[in-house]
Structure formats: structure tokens, C-alpha cells
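Lab notes, practical 5.
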Amino acid sequence: MGEMGKRKLDTGWLAARSTEVKLTGVELTTTHAPSGPDQPWMEAVVPGTVLATLVKNNLVPDPFYGLENESIIDIADSGREYYTFWFFTTFHCKLSGNQHVDLNFRAINYSAEVYLNGHKEVLPKGMFRRHSLDVTDIVHPDDENLLAVLVYPPDHPGRIPPEGGQGGDHEIGKDVAAQYVEGWDWMTPIRDRNTGIWDEVSISVTGPVKIVDPHLVSAFFDNYERVYLHVTTGLVNKSARVAECSLNVLVTTEVKGGFCLVEHLQTEHVSVPLGASVQYTFPKLFFYKPHLWWPNGMGKQSLYNVEIGVEVKGFGESDMWNHHFGFRKIESNIDSVTGGRLFKVNGQPIFIRGGNWILSDGLLRLPKKRYQTDIKFHSDMNFNMIRCWGGGLAERPEFYHYCDIYGLLVWQEFWITGDCDGRGVPISNPDGPLDHELFLLCARDTVKLLRNHPSLALWVGGNEQVPPEDINRTLKDELKLHPYFQISSQSGNSQEDIIPLLKDPSQYLDGTRIYIQGSMWDGFADGKGDFSDGPYEIQYPESFFKDDFYKYGFNPEVGSVGVPVAATIRATMPPEGWQIPLFKKLSNGYVEEVPNPMWEYHKYIAYSKPGLVHDQILLYGTPTDLDDFCLKAQLVNYIQYRALLEGWTSRMWSKYTGVLIWKNQNPWTGLRGQFYDHLHDQTAGFYGCRSAAEPIHVQLNLATYFVEVVNTTSDELSNVAIEVSVWDLEGKCPYYKVFENLSVPSKRTVPIFEMDYPKSKNQMPVYFLLLKLYNISDYGILSRNFYWLYLPGGDYKLLEPYRKKKVPLKITSQVFIGVSTYEIRMHVRNTSKKPDSKNLLYKNRCIERDSDGDFDVASLEPVNSRIEEKMEGGLIRRIFSRFKHEANALRVTEVNGTEVGVAFFLHFSVHASKPDRKEGEDTRILPVHYSDNYFSLAPGEEMPINLSFEVPPGVTPRVTLHGWNYHTGHTIL
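Output from the prediction step:
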């Protein structure tokens, strides 16, 4: 019997432009198969797009480097045939008995002809739909199988407007993502419109009965102590006789040591008529006090493995399906106090702090490892929601898998955005998409693909508009909530009485999450669809705290700056792109930044807004070169995004229910609105967000100068203390106060006292402020927050001579090496002043996040990464992935200095040690996960810093420290 299950076809692919192949699909898959990457055939990127394949083979330049995208011909000029490509591969598939094999395409853009061993199948149109072909009678079970796929671009690929604005004639019911057509104000046009086999290809071998699209739903009672799991699955009988089946559902959870505990096992007998497709609903499964799945910052992300298997009489095991499922209930309504949309998970209100997600890569190179890094970065920033914006993708299951693991709620928008349908230049189609039935077919299939993920929080019709009336009406009807999920979680046993009288919730298309018609409706922005999101530019930090900044309860998009580090600019642009902006003084006293053409092409957004906001980089003095500009930009990035989130959190529940920043990341080498760049190096804004979005946080209200404590958790804070210390540029502490015996209720922001140092007689024009929130019982630091501030009307220019101050540091480190991973644990101490045991200031016992079932911020893998291992390999892999050895004993590095002061804006980077390094070569090892970076230390203060990363074979890493006082760089390891 052949091996049962799914096997990905993700290697060995070839590709060729259709106009250069003079053979038919039948010939390619019978008598004239390509033998290798010989002209016109080339190695292909599958999953991937035509453009990704051309870039891989150096047939076009990297479109994300400099202005190279301008040299690539656009499909509007070349015609569709230019980007119509053949993809070819071979595979083996052993079959025996009554086994069946399907050939599966999880997504193709936009349509395709499939040839297998001389047989042809035409795939219907649609970017967001799955295709499954029964090829049992076509495959050669004991020989090589030849597969060729001719992929056609979208029927209406559109034209980029001459002025480079938004719009274009295309057919988005078809589903091509909007930004790829027109180039947005933050994205370059994608020349092939992402044509290709852009998602997973696989073959799956089953017996006579196949499992299709199971649906899992949990229903809670008695204050979440009792839960019922509802399961419905499709069954397809591929045989020519009635199939008598034993249908099993097995629910397990992992306990310590990698062992699994069986929570539930149930078997049902089912008869499936010959050639029939049926839906079968199990009797509900009962669980008592299950471990719950919580969003990031609220608790553990507990996941159970649900396995459904079917055995057929006379055959044996026929098919098996499994999924990691989280028991959780999500509710959403419009808050009566703020008017904003309020989310509850397991009955607990969740204050939303997150961002807008475009997609990981503009050429749809979407490996699992990249997804893991992306989502872990969001978790590391303490975010709890990602909005999958409607001009991007219906995201892939791998994306959701990591959102499940790391606790990121997902707002999934359907692929409708007004900038392409009805508002473009020229106007494309006010009633777009063109094919409404196709759009709905793709939408339904997307729901089935994603609905079992606990991280999925809501469906939204479109970006800044609603779908056409008929589509919107259908989505509202088909995604309506099951009555159980319309009842408050506070209800009692009446819920249990109602459910048996209703259709089983797992028989709905979804039924567990709300559908909102558009991103500015029903509790988002003004709730009425008016353009009331934004703003999208630099702001004064104090503005975010003021009453008049944003007047609605939930802002789905508020954006700002995001220049990356200088090394990224050099890695993504030739030298002519390294010129920093010119600072042009205007008659009104403001400064306009004039970027070079390459920065303008990469959508640079200025750090000034003439007429409203003075240039925030010039506060530190005029930059002298690229390194100086990018370092000062990181100072602004940190302040800007910390203030944004702290301003929102300051009004938690009284004015706001949440905020999503535009945007988290860039799908290309853009220069605006990002917390990490396309190469996966973080900006300082990443760590500003990480600080501000802590579940428990101490902060300074920049409008009132009150120190506030934020508690977003479900537990009251009691017996805590706040320490406030001010440090001047001479290393003295002119202001020191401690406030003890404080209590902060659950889910509240409480002002504690006014920070009156700016009103004192001997205040300094520039000073540092350090806030620490302690547990009094053990001096454990619950939150630490460091500010650099100037007096009203001033600036930061006194920090420029401060760069020459040599402040000594002592760094102890320990290295742990795995098979391909490094973990480095460091303690960094400012030794310019001896600790004073009388002050709390030098009680340096930092409390690390609870990683039991969540994750360790210094680890590449979550603690419950055994979920990942079970999916990917056996016992040997698991043993070796856990094997680490200590590379050396405790190492001490000292950075010499003789002056007392704050060690300001310290940041680490990791590089490959290369004896043959070329001039200007980017040696950074990316990504690196830091427990903190861009941090500062007061005299005598110490902080633990952990970092982890993977290294290529044969590479020795080197860790370097830079800082405001350490601009020459110091090698730590």
C-alpha cells in the first residue's frame, strides 16, 4: 500500500515563458519533457510568482533594490503573454488497492491549465481559491509522473496611472491584491501582478473516503468551566460502492516531557453512498475546565490537537486530518462609553494594541520561517492584534498557525479596497469586483481554510469601503453569528437549553465571529464610513495624549515615520541613494525635508510636517551623514511610537477601546511606516512599542506630566511602588522620589502623581527621566521606562556634545549553541557610579515575562514549540533541536570610560566574522530576537539582555555594541 497523507511538491520545479516554449502541454508531459534548466527553462520558485522566478535567475534585477523596478517591463506595456509562464516538475506516487490521489493547488493567480502525463485539466479563475484534482486514473503508480502547469495573469491586469497615484483598470473579483496594481503611496508597483503558483502545491493519498474541511467550534458554560466541542466534517466517497465507515475524533494535549494526554476519543459509524459527498456532525464532546487560549499579554496560548480519522470496512485507515485548536470564545460589540468596537476573549475585555499587516513579501516569497519571524516580532512588541488589510492577502494557514502560537488576534479583511474599485485614475469599476459570484466563491473557500484558528477574531468586508450591495448582503447572511454566540458570556444555563433546539454551530460556514462590512464602520473610526482614520504623518509626541487628537473609540489606521538603520539603506540602495534629505527652510519658519529621488521612490515620509510639526530630527542638530541621520531617526522613531501607544493607553476604556498602527512592516524595501524592515532588522520604534504595550506599564503623560500606571491584565496590582529619578547630563540625580503602597485595579490606567521637576528652580534644559514600577515584596521590576526630555520651547541639541562623554560599561555574557542557533544571555551594567543600597534605583531584579506556555522573549521558538516539532519530524529531530552546549564560561567585557553619566541609547547588532569581507559588504546576521534594544542605563544600573538567532553553516557570529556615547562600536563577543 502506498504511503497515506499529504506530500508537498515544493522542489525541483522549472519554469519558462510560454512564448518561448514551442511544445504543447501534452508533449511536455509525455514525449518532450524538459530535462533541466536549459534555455528557455530555468529553476523556478514554487510556491512563488513569475517575477520571483525571474529574480532568482538574474533575468531581471531585484525590483526592491534602488530604482531597479523601473527597468522591469510592466504587464500593461508587455501584454499578458509576457508574464504567462509554464511551470514543470516531476514526482513519484505509489498507489495500491483502493487508494486515491489528489493533486492540490492551494492558490494560483490567476488561472491555469494543468497537464499530467498527457491529460489536461483547466483550472477556473480566482487568486484566493483552492483546487483539488482527482488524478488517480492518471498517475503512473510505479513510474515518474510529469506535471506541467500553464499559468495566466489576471484578465484585466490594469495600468499604472501616469501620475503614479492609486487606481487602474483591473478585475478584483478575481482577487488580485490592490497595491500590486497601482503602486500605493507606500508600495512600488509589482510588474507581473503576482502571477504564478504562489501557494502550496501537494499530492494527497487517501483510501476510498476522504475528509474535507472539518469545522471545530467550542461552546462554554458555567463561567468557562464546562465546554462542548462541536465537530462537523465533510466526507467524500471516491469508490464505486457504499462505504461503511468508522469515524473517529481524538483530542489530545501535551504534558511535560513531550507526552500526550488523551482528553477525548469518540467513534461513530457512518455510511457514505457511492460517489457521494456528505456532511457529518459528531455528537458534542464534553470537557471540564479545559486550558483556554488567550491573546498575547492575557494568558497562555493553550492548544489541543484535534485529530479526525476515518476507517472504511474492508480497507482500513482511509484518511486523517489534524489541527491545533484553542478553546476560546470571542465576542465583539460597540462600547456604550467610547463608541469604539470592544473585543472580549473568554469574557475578558481586551484593549487592542496592534497594527496593519500588508504581507510578508511583495513577491509572495512566503516561507514558514519568515512567517514565524514576522509573527514573533509582533508578539515581542507586546501587540495583541494584526489587521490583514484588504489590499493584501487572505493570509495563509502558516501565518495563522504562528498567530495561534504567539497569541495575535487577527482581523481578516476580504480583498476589496476602494482605491482600486471606483476611486482610481481612471475609475475602474464602481461596482467592483467584476465577477461577484467568483468573489463569493473565493470568500467562502477562504473562510473554510482559516475558520478553525483561535487567533482569527473577525471578518471585514473591505478597506475603507463596503463590498457591493449583493456581496455585502450575502457575506452578512452567510457569516452571521450562531445564536449561541449572540448571547453574552455572562448568561447562565439558558444557553445550554437553547443549543439543542438549534442547528449545530459547527454546521455554519463560520458562525463564531462577527462580520463587519468595512474598516470604518460599526465601531471603527467614526462608524459611518467617513474617512476618519489616520493621520499618517509625524506628530508632536504630546499630541497623542490630548483630547482633540482623535475623537473616535477605535482607530483602525494611524501612521507615522519609519526610516530603517543606515546598514539597511546601504544594503538596499546604491551609493547615490545614501544622500540624506536636504533641510529647506520655509518662509513660515518650518523646515521641509527634500529627499533624494531614490528615497522618494521608496516612499520616504518626512520627519516634519510644515505648518503643523517642526522637524523632529533637527531637534538633535543637523545630521552630518547617513549614519548620523539614521541614528537620530531611531531616536525619533522610539519616541513617536511609544507616545502613540501610551497616549491611547492613557485613555483606555474612557475614550478608546483600541488602535491599530499603519503599518507594522514593509513587504519591500520601503522607508515609511514600519517597525522592522524587509531584511528583518528592527527600528527603534519596535522597542518603543514594546515598552508602551507592556501588559503592566508605568508611563509619563506628556500632556499633563502625570505619571500613570497601566494595568491591562485581569488581576489587580497591589503593594507596588513607583520610583522616579531624573538625571542630568553631568551624571547627577537632582530629583528622586518613591511612591509606595500603591494599588491599581484590573484593566485601568491610573494617574499617580504629577512629575514636577520641570517646574523646579534648577531644572536642566535637557534631562533623562527613569520610571520604575516595583513589587514591594521582592523589589522585582514590573515595568521600566526611560525618557529623554527637554523643557518647553527647547530642543535636544545639548545631546550632541554629550556623545563625547565616555561612560564605562561592564558586560557579562554567556553563550549557548544549538545545532544552528545561538542564544546569548548578557547583563549590561553602567559602572560609572557605585550602587547605593538606600535607594530602590539599584534594585535590579528584573521580572521576566511568564513563559510557561507562552514564549521566552530570548528564544527563537515558543516554549510550546513541540507543536511545531510534532508537525515536522520525529524523535531524533526533537532530541537534536533541544541539544545545546555552553560555548564558553562566563565572559566579561569592559568598555572603558572615566566619566559619570547615563549610557544612552545602547543597541546591539550581530555580524558574521568574515576574513574575506569586501568593502561595504553587509555582514549583519538577521533576524535577531532581542529581549530589548535601544535602551539606556542610569549610573550604577544593570539590565539583562538576551538575544537569539540562527547562523549559516560555518559562520562565526560577532556581537557589536553601539550607542550615543559609543558610536565607534565595541565588539562584545
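Observations recorded by the TA: Residues 164-182, 489-493, 850-883 have pLDDT under 50 and may be disordered. The first strand starts at residue 5 and ends at 8.
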